[in-house]
Amino acid sequence: MGLGVITNPLAGGGDLPLVLIPDVAYYGEQFFFDNGRLGYSLIQDSPHTFNLVTEFNSETRFFVDWHPSNIFALRSESSFTSSENELQIQQPRLDITELDKRRWALDAGLSYHYSYQQHLFSVQALADVSGVYDGWLSALQWQMYNNIGELQVKPTIGIWYKSAALNTYFYGITEKESPDRTMEVGSSWQPYAKIDARWPLNGANSLRFHMAYYDYSALADDSPLFEQTYSLTAFIGFDHIF
After folding, report:
1. Which residues are CB-contacts of 240 (< 8 A; sequence separation ≥ 6)?
2. By C-alpha distance, which of 192, 185, 237, 191 is closest to 213?
3. What DSSP letter does each residue of 64-112 carry, written as one string?
4. pLDDT tens for residues 42-62?
5. Whose CA is closest to 151, among 195, 120, 119?
6. How many Cβ atoms from other residues are within 10 Å of residue 238's Cβ?
């Protein structure tokens, strides 16, 4: 419980305030649920872990306020050549309220984790199994667990690769939405960085700080839906473990 926000980089999309954030996880011998991600561990041979995982695609969070990625917030073609300025004039930003609602998509795939001392290296590849956008995405990530006195700090950096089919579904324009401005969006690389910090107060309570930056500049160059080239998540408050 605290105060925070998730910024929406899309034109017409409102920022989402963060006040009360659930953190729900269950780990059995092989099955697990962790804040919207359901998985099954194939191999648990420390320091290597292979999992089958499934989760709702997080891109829908910019179109749907009550998406799991928001609830569990803590983790045109042209026949001629124009200059960039001319293209911006001819293709002004579109408000997402003018577009059809983007459907929820379910992704599934494999994840691999390698732990070394305080470091955790992860690779994952997911594909749409719900037939919504018929594309795929993958990610590389590094995370470190570190203590500075009593302060627990967890920095994370990574990069997503997202297929053209994924980007076109969420950030392109269909003929139905705008017959004169139909647009497909190519594949993209999306870097991100996070830092999470906790200061224990007692066994069940701690102060919590979370900051995350997601770069959408590669998509913002191609899609008229973007008003900003990034999304920020920021939160500060109290954490209580039941």
Report:
1. 1, 204, 205
2. 192
3. -TT-HHHHT------SS---HHHHHHHSPPPPGGGSPPPPP-EEEEEEE
4. 988 889 999 999 999 988 888
5. 195
6. 11
Residues 186-197, mean pLDDT to the nearest whole number:
96
| pLDDT digit string, tens, across residues 8-39 | 999 888 888 888 888 888 999 899 999 889 99
Residues 6+ apart with CB under 8 A from 118: 144, 145, 146
Task: List all residues 6 or more positions away from 31 whose beta carbon is below 8 Å from its beta carbon.
Answer: 38, 39, 40, 41
Does this model's pTM top 0.70? My answer is yes
Task: End-to-end CA distance of the chain: give it in Å, rounded.
Answer: 13
C-beta separation of 109 from 125 below 8 A: yes
| CA contacts within 13 A on the Cβ side of 202 | 3
- In whole angstroms, what is the distance from residue 37 CA to residue 168 CA? 24
Q: What are phi and psi of 2, to 5 degrees?
A: 180, -140
